[in-house]
């Protein structure tokens, strides 16, 4: 795993955590990234 320091909108993060059912920022970001990749793969395989 890589540690990356980025600025994230607090309100967007809180909303993502609520929607994803995660309890930490790290879990929210990782879950959101995995879900995004899976969604793109379904729409455009091999992208």
TrEMBL record:
InterPro entries: VapB_antitoxin. It comes from the Bacteria. This is DUF2191 domain-containing protein.
